[in-house]
Amino acid sequence: MSFVSDSWIITKRQLLQLTRVPEVLIFSTIQPVMFVLLFRYVFGGSIQTGQPGGYVQLLMPGILCRPLHSRLRELHLV
User: Fold this and answer.
1) CA-to-CA distance for 10 and 47, rounded, in angstroms?
2) What are phi and psi of 54, to 5 degrees?
3) Can you say how many angstroms the Cα of residue 18 is from the centroid of all Cα atoms in its chain?
4) Cβ–Cβ under 8 Å, residues 58 and 49
5) Distances (CA, A) of 77 to 10, 29, 59, 68, 70
6) Is 70 exceeded by the pLDDT of residue 78?
7) Which of 10, 46, 52, 59 has a 20 to 30 A CA-CA distance from 76?
8) What is the mean pLDDT of residues 40-63?
9) 44: which residues sit within 8 A by CB, 6+ positions away?
10) Which residues have a Cβ under 8 Å from the Cβ of 48 and sit 6 or more positions away?
11) 64 touches 32 (CB < 8 A)
12) Which pLDDT score is estimated for 44?
């Protein structure tokens, strides 16, 4: 099988999972927003990084990459 056909099969499986369990879509959408609010406004002032722009420069890429990493982990690709 090729990369494209394998990717298509995995995409179909994930979309089928979303139709059967819609909570997955809701949770995967709300969780990054909750993390940004929590770590930016609750813990943001207590973490000193010494970088210009502060903690937010490290927070946003980490929060945005986390859902991708968890999806790849579920597919056993990481």
Assistant:
1) 39
2) 70, -150
3) 16
4) yes
5) 12, 22, 24, 11, 10
6) no
7) 59
8) 75
9) 54, 55, 56, 59
10) 54, 55
11) yes
12) 67
Q: Say if residues 17 and 24 touch (Cβ distance below 8 Å).
A: yes
Token pair recorded at residue 17 = 């999972």
Q: Which two tokens stand for residue 30?
A: 């709300």
Tokens of 49: 């990084």
Measured between alpha carbons, how far is 67 from 70 in angstroms, rounded to an integer?
A: 5
CA distance 12 to 73: 17
Question: Coil, strand, or helix at residue 45?
Answer: helix
pTM over 0.90: no
The Cα–Cα gap between 17 and 15 comes to 5
Beta carbons of 78 and 69 less than 8 angstroms apart:
yes
